[in-house]
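C-alpha cells as discussed.
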C-alpha cells in the first residue's frame, strides 16, 4: 500500500480528540436549547395523554349510545305492538326518548337511528306532515349516513301520497344526485320516471327510463323501464 493511500485513510478518520470535541458540541447545543427540548417533550406527552383520553371518552360514548339505542328500540317494539289507541297515548313518550337520545349523542349512529324511529312513530299515529319533516331533516343533519337516502325515499312517498309530486321529485332527485351508489337506486330512478308519467310529462319520463336502462344493470326495475318506454311509444306519447 502506498504512503499516499495510507495518508488519505488516516485523514478520513476522526481522531479521539475530534470525537470528544463533537460530543462537547452536542452537549453544548442540548444545554443551550434545553428549554426548547423540554417544551417539545411536554407537548408530545400532552398529545399522547390527550389522544388516550379522547379514545377512552369516545369508546365510552359508543357503549353508552349503544345501550341507549337498545333501550329505545325495545320501547319502539312495545309501541308497535300496541293497539291504535295505545299508540296515541304512548307516542309522546317514545318521541321524547328519541329526541333526548339524538340530542345527547350528536352525529353518532344511535342519534340517526333515533331520528328515524321518531319519524316511524309519527307515521304510525298519522302525523305524516311531521314525519316528512323529520325524515327530510335527518338527511340534512346526517347526509353521510346510510339512512339518509332511505329517509329521503320515505319522505318522497309521503309527499306523493299527499299529492305534492314536485316535492316527491325533489326528494328522489336528491337521492339520485347525492347517493348514486345507494341500495335500490334503480327503483329511485324508475319512481322519478313514473311520477313524470303520472303528471303527463312523458318526455321526461322517457328520459328517466332511458337513464336507468343506460346503466346496463339488469334488474326488475330495468325491465319495467323497457316496458314503459315501449308502451309510451306505442301510444304515441313519445317518439
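Sequence:
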Amino acid at each position: 500500500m502506498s504512503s499516499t493511500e495510507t495518508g488519505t485513510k488516516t485523514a478520513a478518520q476522526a481522531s479521539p480528540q475530534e470525537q470528544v470535541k463533537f460530543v462537547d458540541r452536542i452537549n453544548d447545543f442540548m444545554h443551550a436549547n434545553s428549554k426548547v427540548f423540554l417544551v417539545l417533550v411536554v407537548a408530545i406527552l400532552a398529545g399522547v395523554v390527550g389522544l388516550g383520553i379522547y379514545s377512552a371518552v369516545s369508546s365510552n360514548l359508543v357503549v353508552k349510545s349503544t345501550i341507549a339505542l337498545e333501550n329505545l328500540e325495545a320501547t319502539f317494539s312495545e309501541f308497535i305492538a300496541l293497539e291504535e289507541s295505545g299508540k296515541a297515548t304512548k307516542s309522546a313518550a317514545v318521541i321524547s326518548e328519541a329526541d333526548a337520545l339524538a340530542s345527547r349523542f350528536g352525529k353518532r349512529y344511535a342519534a340517526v337511528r333515533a331520528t328515524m324511529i321518531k319519524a316511524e312513530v309519527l307515521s304510525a299515529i298519522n302525523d305524516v306532515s311531521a314525519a316528512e319533516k323529520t325524515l327530510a331533516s335527518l338527511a340534512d343533519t346526517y347526509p353521510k349516513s346510510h339512512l339518509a337516502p332511505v329517509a329521503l325515499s320515505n319522505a318522497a312517498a309521503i309527499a306523493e301520497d299527499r299529492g305534492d309530486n314536485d316535492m316527491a321529485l325533489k326528494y328522489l332527485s336528491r337521492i339520485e344526485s347525492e347517493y348514486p351508489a345507494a341500495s335500490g337506486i334503480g327503483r329511485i330512478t324508475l319512481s322519478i320516471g313514473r311520477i313524470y308519467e303520472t303528471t303527463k310529462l312523458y318526455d321526461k319520463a322517457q328520459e328517466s327510463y332511458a337513464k336507468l336502462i343506460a346503466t346496463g344493470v339488469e334488474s326488475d326495475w330495468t325491465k319495467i323501464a323497457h316496458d314503459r318506454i315501449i308502451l309510451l311509444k306505442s301510444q304515441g306519447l313519445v317518439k
